[in-house]
Design brief:
The protein is about 40% helix and about 25% strand. With about 375 residues, it is α/β, with parallel strands linked by helices. A hairpin with a 2-residue loop joins strand 5 (about 105-115) and strand 6.
Length: about 375
Amino acid sequence: MDPSRDLDRIVSELNARPETDGDESSDTAPLDRWLAALVAKGGSDLLLVPGAPVCILHEGGVRNIEAEPLSGSEIEAIVLPALTPHALQQYRAGQIADSSYRISDLGRFRINLHRERGQAAAAIRALPAKVPQLSELRLPAGIETLSHLQRGLVLIGGPAGSGKSTTLAALIHEINRRDARHIVTIEDPIEYEHAHVHSVIEQIEIGTDAPDFPTALRAALRQAPDIIVVGEMRDIETMQIAVAAAETGHLVLSTIHTTDVASTVSRISDSFPVERQNTIRQELAMALTAVLTQILLPCKTGGRMPVAELLMMSYGARQHIRHNALQHLHQEITLTKKKGSFTMEESLVKLVSQGFIEREDALLCAIHPDDLEILLKAETQARSARS
């Protein structure tokens, strides 16, 4: 069957559904129609913001799919019926909730219902049905090395929407199709559903299978896993258990909202009370095996292109973490190139020279713009010498 025709049929069926005024469990028709439009147009997120029309994010830009603005009460009434019972309780208690949502024949979605300026708002992401392969993500060469690690803590940093979870899922998929391992993932909600290939993969969803990350993580340690995936490092208890698990021989992979290697390490240690920060730095220095950070930039050929930085841990990097000299971690990336490390600036230069991204975009997002200028100049001179 032609996939586009099948999608057209699904969208038509959802658009034909009558809007109901019944109870919470039946009143998702408007949301279902908007999500069908999101998928049909190839968008990544549905945005419901009070005072604004219904919008989608498409290739980094915002597009309206309806002209009339919504009120906060309308958003709340439309989104609440789609929440799981746990998420509904979460929202009523704290005015913010994350939930998974599935529409038959259309796919799975991640709902974030929150408040802004005293009113309800929501961001809803379409979750891919297929786990991507690393080769499909156009990430810098060398990241596949992370799938061969046997133990330690691997952190993937980046801002929201930078593809951290996708990279993490692709690494797990790489392990799954190659190795016979026992993998436990803990997510809120589950983003990618993994099939058992060579590995056995248990996927724990917070709110459905466990009440919170620390509880799920403690339980996972009793399940004899080789690999533990923590969807996000959100609280110090989760961080503490994850670091301890990595120290005792497990491979632990997780994501965190940061922009570079140094800020990734400091985000963990600075989350703890001052009197505990030195201790956690000592533990982190032993547990960390690799730190990857990434962002997405507009690609000249369409879509967005990942740009990344990778530090494979070394004795020098561990010493810098122990002594809280995190400003020196950048130079450790250069010193550990033979282990697979590379800087954000090196990644940017390759993409500029290959014609994927604009020089101006590269300079705007560079962590060390002076280094980038030097590398770009050297690349231009090398190209001139070759010609």
